[in-house]
Design brief:
One of its GO terms (molecular function) is oxidoreductase activity, acting on paired donors, with incorporation or reduction of molecular oxygen. Belongs to the cytochrome P450 family. There is one protein chain. The protein has 476 residues and is of the alpha+beta class. It is 50% helix and 11% strand. It has 17 helices and 16 strands. It has helices at 29-33, 36-50, 71-79, 87-98, 107-120, 123-150, 157-174, 180-195, 202-209, 211-233, 243-250, 254-285, 287-297, 320-332, 365-368, 372-375, 419-436, and strands at residues 10-11, 14-15, 55-56, 65-67, 84-85, 155-156, 301-304, 312-315, 339-343, 347-348, 353-355, 360-363, 388-390, 396-398, 437-441, 463-468. The chain has a five-stranded mixed beta sheet with strand order 3-4-12-9-5, sandwiched between helices. A four-stranded antiparallel beta sheet has the order 2-1-11-10, with no helix packed on it. A three-stranded antiparallel beta sheet has the order 6-16-15. Strand 7 (301-304) and strand 8 (312-315) form a beta hairpin. Helix 5 (107-120) packs antiparallel against helix 11 (243-250) and helix 12 packs parallel to helix 17 (419-436).
């Protein structure tokens, strides 16, 4: 780091650890410009060698930036949410896509959107959505897989799951389904927005090459405004309020409601579908875990009437093991692998690190998941059993970890309000998929990694060859 460019972050008045192999003047700018999956792998290796110590990631083009790895420090960040704000660095890059939506909002605007989301995603509503809205959408997905199996066609399972969640969340939240053009536009805008965090010259670059982003933003904004106008003109059903109804009642204008609608759509669609994609991928590489999962699901499975060519299995209860499988896949493949906040004033972290006002405080959930200091020597292994505890009678209990150790749903007062729905829908869809289908990976050798986006889509999708699972008992 060039000390003339900005005041250094200090630890008890002594410059604390910098990341190794930092170049003079430009610091880590070159690292930031490489593909994100390479940056994440580098941070994981760095954390492995440095333990849970806080260290600096210097670059002359961004404010002072530190990476925290200690769960105690992250717990402090979650708890002191007013001290660790989203900040201008974050909001300026996100504003074009999300405006004043909940990801970018603060103060009363954030509180109003959060209250609307909490009310909408109540336990009763999540149960109703899962039992009424999801089954017919799953039926259509099974039909698509059945056709592919008959003609021996490979399919992109990630694309199918994204389509499923687009329809599911669009129907339950807005009573409308986004079209393919709208979905593609959002994906493109998300990738461009993500690039702003690692390209220090993003404004200059977009001035000359940003036309695709502007076209994508126009489509996204148009969709947001259309769903708001439709909701405002719609006759209300007594006793039922959609998410848009709640937002319209709480927010000051339709522009803000449109921003909120776009933000909730992203959170509801992308993260859950991507988490399910990564879970199927991990199961495909871990036949022993898949076998254990099937054994745990089978006693709870029931056969339902179906329009497909053979009966389908579903589950009446979610056994603990599938929740452990889903949690473990999310641990290794977090939907938001790198996150950040900005200090509102000078402060001291629990490990003694003193941060000046305006310091970017980042944490990499992806790297923390691979830390032996947090998860043990098998931290890099896909092992759902780490989430379970058995008593003397062999009965297992799901044992959650703290948000500071497992920050995939954030933490503190800003914990993800869609956590319960993501887990419920994710486990339900995954259970149906593995009970009814075998998925052969088309490319078994190549290690999959996350693509360029604000979330963690699987780069290149997940190409599989589906086959109906054959059961030998009378339930099948």
């Amino acid at each position: 780091m060039c000390p003339l460019l900005y005041e250094s972050v200090v630890l008890d008045a002594v410059l604390y650890m910098k990341a190794p192999k930092s170049l003079p003047i430009i610091g880590y700018t070159a690292r930031l410009l490489q593909p994100r999956y390479k940056l994440l792998d580098y941070l994981a290796r760095l954390q492995s060698s440095r333990g849970v110590k806080t260290f600096e990631i210097p670059s002359p083009f961004v404010p002072p930036t530190v990476l925290i790895n200690d769960p105690a420090c992250l717990e402090y960040v979650f708890r002191e949410h007013e001290l660790f704000a989203k900040g201008s660095f974050f909001r300026s890059r996100m504003h074009d896509l999300f405006g004043d939506g909940i990801l970018n909002a603060s103060g009363p605007l954030w509180q109003s959107q959060r209250k609307a989301g909490v009310n909408f995603l109540s336990s009763a509503n999540v149960t109703r959505f899962s039992s009424e809205t999801l089954p017919p959408l799953m039926e259509a997905m099974h039909e698509r897989l059945t056709t592919a199996a008959i003609i021996h066609e490979m399919v992109d399972l990630q694309e199918l799951l994204l389509d499923l969640m687009s329809k599911f969340f669009g129907l339950v939240a807005y009573d409308t389904v986004p079209g393919a053009d709208q979905v593609r536009a959002f994906d493109e805008a998300s990738a461009w927005t993500d690039a702003r965090f690692t390209n220090p010259l993003w404004q200059f670059y977009e001035l000359f090459f940003g036309q695709p982003l502007q076209r994508a933003l126009e489509i996204v904004k148009k969709f947001g405004h259309e769903v708001v106008i439709k909701a405002a003109e719609k006759t209300r059903t007594p006793g039922h309020q959609s998410l848009l109804d709640l937002l319209l009642a709480r927010l000051p204008d339709k522009e803000t409601v449109a921003d909120a609608a776009t933000t909730f759509m992203s959170a509801g669609r992308d993260t859950t579908a991507q988490a399910m994609t990564w879970t199927v991928y991990e199961l495909s590489k871990s036949p022993k875990v898949l076998s254990t999962l099937l054994t745990s699901l089978e006693p709870h499975s029931i056969t339902r009437d179906s329009s497909t060519r053979s009966p389908l299995r579903t589950i009446g209860l979610h056994p603990r093991y599938i929740k452990a499988v889903f949690a473990e896949a999310l641990r290794l493949n977090p939907s938001v692998p790198l996150n950040m906040r900005e200090t509102a004033r000078r402060c001291r972290l629990p490990d003694g690190t003193v941060l000046q006002a305006g310091t970017i405080v980042a944490w990499a959930s992806y790297a923390m998941a691979r830390s032996s200091a947090i998860w043990g020597e098998d931290a890099q292994d896909f092992r759902p059993e780490r989430w379970l505890s058995s008593d003397e009678n062999g009965n297992s209990t799901f044992v959650p970890r703290s948000a500071s150790e497992y920050p995939v749903f954030h933490g503190g007062s800003r914990v993800c309000i869609g956590k319960s729905m993501a887990e419920a829908v994710g486990c339900q869809v995954l259970a149906e998929l593995v009970l009814n289908w075998e998925f052969e990976l088309v490319d078994k050798e190549t290690r999959k990694h996350a693509g360029e986006s604000l979330t963690a889509p699987m780069d290149g999708g997940l190409l599989v060859r589906p086959r109906r699972r054959v059961w030998t008992d009378t339930k099948a």
